[in-house]
Design goal:
InterPro entries: CBP_BcsS. With 252 residues, the chain is of the alpha+beta class. The protein is built from 1 helix and 13 strands; from the N terminus they run H-E-E-E-E-E-E-E-E-E-E-E-E-E. Strand 9 and strand 10 form a beta hairpin.
Length: 252
């Protein structure tokens, strides 16, 4: 009996020694997975870039910060810089080019609910424009104003996504809006979108297209859109044409 017990003890020791590396690996994997989950739920910074191009083009880059975390109610801040250009006047042969630069620093609050997230922001903005035509180049005075920014990302059902974004600024007397709806397919959301924009110069546009939102490429998420838009200034009728748009955001 004593010999059998000694053999059992030796066998248990050997099994413990052999299983020790496996237990360590499992523990390390569990810790790594838990850390990744914790990091994903405590994000508080997002870098973003966007480009919208048709008869006109405009790009924006910036950062969005949450005082606490993006998955909770709380204060948020957004800083952005944008540049763009368009051709105006002359009917089919534009005679004026307008280049614009915009900057804004906004603060506000986000409301996180089971159905989605709603964010309201407000703050100062600056606008600088340059006109170029047959008579030369004319820089316009720097304009200061107030910008209001609101957006909603909602999940009406587990398989759908609805978004609404509105930006209004007094520096250029401009407004921009986008509405979209998407159905979850292959890990992203696909569906229709409507865009629109106006400003104090008489410029206006609206468009209808299709989008793919929340596509993943490494750590980045992006949205790709394309469609048809109607665009024009106060001196010309709306012109139809294609447009494409790309938005990328990287959580840090």
């Amino acid at each position: 009996m004593a010999t059998v017990r000694r053999d059992e003890v030796r066998l248990k020791r050997r099994l413990r020694m052999r299983l020790a590396p496996l237990r360590a690996s499992i523990a390390m994997a569990t810790l790594t997975w838990s850390a990744a989950l914790a990091d994903d739920t405590t994000r508080h910074t997002v870098l973003f870039n966007s480009l919208e191009a048709g008869h006109s083009a405009f790009s924006t880059s910036g950062v969005k910060l949450a005082v606490d975390r993006f998955d909770r109610d709380g204060f948020v801040a957004l800083v952005s810089i944008g540049t763009g250009g368009r051709l105006e006047g002359g009917g089919r042969l534009p005679v004026l080019a307008r280049a614009s630069a915009l900057g804004a620093a906004l603060g506000g609050y986000q409301f996180v609910r089971r159905w989605g997230v709603a964010t309201l922001l407000a703050g100062p903005e600056l606008s600088f424009e340059v006109l170029a035509g047959l008579d030369g180049t004319q820089p316009l005075p720097l304009r200061k104003g107030l910008r209001l920014h609101g957006e909603i990302w909602a999940r009406p059902t587990e398989a759908t996504l609805a978004t609404a974004s509105v930006i209004v600024g007094s520096a250029r007397g401009a407004a921009w809006a986008r509405l979209s709806w998407g159905l979850s397919l292959f890990g992203a959301y696909f569906g229709p979108e409507v865009i629109g924009a106006i400003d104090r110069t008489g410029y206006r546009k609206w468009g209808l297209g299709l989008h793919a939102t929340d596509l993943a490429l490494g750590p980045s998420r992006f949205r790709l859109s394309a469609g048809c838009q109607f665009e024009g200034s106060a001196q010309e009728p709306l012109r139809p044409g294609p447009y494409v748009a790309l938005a990328i955001w990287n959580p840090l």
